[in-house]
Design goal:
The chain is of the alpha+beta class. Helix content is 36%, strand content 14%.
């Protein structure tokens, strides 16, 4: 016979962390939730996933993170599955969590993040009124619909939708409206002005007795094409990506004299189209040459 004293009463069950309770409430409403650590940042990848060792990048561009049970990969960790939110793999993160965030795009929403009073005044003049949530410094305007996320679309204005997260700051006030074209238009940027490299940026001269590794033109072409692609696909840290790409190109192709001004121009064009300035391109190229001893 089971004694009633053997059945844990509600007040004897471990209380759920406050932020976990909030996340479960969001999940019930269809908002994919995740914990944030101090500084309003997602928790870092676990040991198995650090430095993208798990191959998370292709997954993040598509449907989500790898199969890791921990809350890895930032926005892509957000979920509406209560079993995942309450799993042992997430327990430590919830104990340390300072905030709760959600993935707007995962709930078919777009958040226009207005960071100051000037941005709010601009929105009131140019955007249709919608559900509004007060933030520490400004407001979140929430619309129904998804789009690509963009930062700094204008002074003090970010757009958070797909592949992004927003802090949960309460249900807000007002009636949510459909995502207007005026918001979508903010993400349409004019083509970057690409300036040619100055005369100070030149292709390396062939080293004495250098052995050409380019057994065919395809070898060099493939290397330049891969470098262009790496720059174009960089999700962030563009300065670092451009420098490391230049360094890799010079290390592999810079010693035998096959690298031409046209090849350098292609790399500079890819970097500038990504938002890098000509000055930063030239500095990165010079630093990369110095690093490899040219």
């Amino acid at each position: 016979m089971t004694h009633t004293t053997d059945i844990p009463r509600d007040h004897e069950r471990p209380a759920l962390p406050t932020h976990l309770r909030t996340a479960l409430q969001l999940a019930e409403r269809g908002l994919p939730a995740l914990p944030l650590r101090e500084g309003k940042l997602p928790f870092g990848n676990c040991r198995n996933c650090t430095r993208s060792a798990c191959g998370d990048r292709p997954h993040m561009k598509a449907a989500g993170p790898c199969e890791c049970p921990a809350p890895c990969h930032g926005w892509a960790a957000a979920t509406t599955d209560p079993d995942i939110l309450t799993s042992p793999a997430w327990a430590r993160a919830w104990r340390q969590a300072q905030d709760v965030a959600y993935h707007p795009g995962g709930a078919a929403l777009t958040v226009v993040d207005l960071d100051n009073a000037d941005a709010i005044a601009w929105a009131r003049e140019n955007l249709p009124a919608t559900k509004t949530v007060s933030t520490t410094r400004g407001e979140h305007w929430i619309y129904l619909g998804t789009m690509t996320s963009h930062n700094d679309v204008r002074p003090g204005v970010d757009i958070k939708s797909s592949m992004a997260y927003a802090r949960w700051l309460g249900p807000g006030t007002g009636t949510m409206q459909l995502l207007p074209n005026a918001v979508r238009a903010l993400a349409v940027k004019e083509p970057a002005t690409v300036r040619p490299a100055s005369s100070t940026v030149t292709a390396p001269a062939p080293t004495v007795d250098a052995v050409c590794r380019h057994r065919s033109p395809a070898y060099l072409e493939r290397g330049i094409a891969m470098a262009e692609q790496r720059i174009k696909e960089a999700p962030d840290a563009i300065h670092k990506t451009v420098y490391r790409t230049f360094l890799a190109v010079l290390s592999a192709h810079g010693w035998c004299g096959c690298l031409t001004e046209a090849h350098i121009g292609r790399l500079f064009t890819a970097a500038q189209e990504k938002g890098e300035s000509l000055r930063h391109c030239e500095t990165a190229w010079t630093n990369a040459r110095t690093q490899v001893g040219m």
